[in-house]
Amino acid sequence: MDKFLQTKHFKRLWKQAKSVPEPFLCGQISQVVKNLVINAVQAMSESGHLHISGENVHLPPDHALAGLLAERNYVRLSVQDNGQGIALQNLTKIFDPYFTTKEQGSGLGLAVCYSVIKKHDGLITVESTVGSGTTFQVYLPATYVETEETPRSEAETSLKSDKGRLLIMDDEPSLRRAMQRLITRLGYQVEVAEDGQKAIEIYQKARAIGQPFDLVLLDLMVPGGMGGKETIAQLRELDPQVKAIVSSGYSNDPVMANYTEYGFLGVLPKPYTLEELRYLINKWG
After folding, report:
1. Residue 267 is inside which H or E element, if any?
2. What confidence tens digit (pLDDT) does each residue in 12-70 have?
3. Domain boundary among 94, 115, 141
4. Do 162 and 128 have their domain in common?
5. Other C-beta atoms within 10 Å of 181: how many?
6. Last residue of one domain, picked from the residues 141, 173, 192
7. Using CA atoms, how far apart are residues 280 and 275, in angstroms rounded to an integer?
8. Residue 250 CA from chain centroid, whole number
9. The predicted structure's pLDDT at residue 210
10. Number of domains comprising the chain
C-alpha cells in the first residue's frame, strides 16, 4: 500500500490507540483498509490530507447506532480525506456492487469492504460533504489477547521442521524463481507453474506417483491463461481435500474477500513478505 501512496502528493496522518488489538489489521481487514485508502486517494486528485485512526470504543445501550450494533466494545477505524466528497444522491449506492462514479473504476472496492465487515459482525458508515471530503468509519467487535506470552521457540517461529511439498502458480517468472529458491532454503520441496493448466498437470502427476502437495498457492489473475478461481474449481474435482491459498494484487476482487466460498483456506494479498507466506504455510501446510 505504501508504494501506491507514494504515487500521490499528500500528507498521511496515522493515529493508532495503544490498546487496539494487534490482530486488527490483518487478513481480510487489511484488504478493507487498503480499499478505503485507495478510494480516498483517488478522491483527492493530486494532493490532500489522508487521516487514518484506530481506537477502542464502548457503545452504550442508547448509542446513535443502536439497532445496527449491539452494546459492547468495538475497535473503530476511521479513514478521512479532504477530497471532492460524495454527492448526497450517491451515498446510499456506494456499497452496491459495480456502482462507481469513476471513469475507470470497477465498482467493487467498497462493496468488498461492506461484505467483509458484515461477515465480521461489524458495520461500516460514511459521512461526506461535496467539496470538503469523506469519512468512512468501520466498527469491529473488539477481541483482546493476553499481553504476557511465553516466548516462542525457534521451531514455532519458523517453518515446521517436517518437510512438505508446495506448488506455486504465478504468471510472473521472477516471482516464481524467487519463491522457489527462498522456500526451498526453508526446507520445503517446491514446484512452480506459470498458469492453471500447468498447475493441474503437475498436481495430477504428483498424486499419481504418491508425492502429493501439502499446500498450493494460486495467483488469482493470469493474463491469457487459467487463473486461480478456475484452477481451484478443477483441483477440487480431482482432490476434494486439496489445500489452497489465493494470492492477488487486486484487493477489490470478490474472491479475495469471500475466498472460502471458492474453496480456498486462506488469502495472501500482493505484495506479500516471506514472513506472511511463512505464517500461512505453518497454519495450513
Report:
1. strand 266-269
2. 455 555 444 444 444 567 778 888 988 888 888 777 888 999 889 888 887 888 788 88
3. 141
4. no
5. 10
6. 141
7. 9
8. 9
9. 94
10. 2
17, amino acid identity: A
Q: What is the CA 224 to chain-centroid distance, rounded?
A: 24
- The verdict on residue 114 lying in a domain is yes
Residue 42: its H or E element: helix 27-43
Q: Within this chain, do residues 137 and 178 fall inside the same structural domain, yes or no?
A: no
| pTM for this entry | 0.49
Q: What letter represents residue 176's amino acid? A: R
* Nearest residue to 158 via CA among 279, 16, 8: 279
Q: Which residue has the cell 532454503?
A: 185
Parallel, antiparallel, or unpaired: how do β-strands 189-193 and 165-169 relate?
Answer: parallel
Same domain for 101 and 212, yes or no, is no
Q: Find where cell 470538503 sits.
A: 132
Q: State the cell numbers at 217.
A: 498457492
Q: What integer pLDDT is reported at residue 30 of this predicted model? A: 76
Q: Which residue's C-alpha cell is 481487514?
A: 29
Q: What is the CA radius of gyration of the chain?
A: 21
pLDDT for 103: 57
- Name the residue range of residue 199's domain: 154-284
And the C-alpha cell for 128?
Answer: 461526506
- Number of neighbouring beta carbons within 10 Å of residue 24: 17
- The answer to whether 165 and 213 are in contact (CB under 8 A) is yes
Residue 155's pLDDT is 38
Residues of the chain with pLDDT under 50: 1-4, 6-10, 12, 18-26, 145-161
How many residues are listed for the chain in this entry?
Answer: 285
The span from the CA of 232 to the CA of 246, in Å, is: 9
Residues 113 and 239 in one domain: no
Rounded CA-CA distance 160/196 in Å is 27
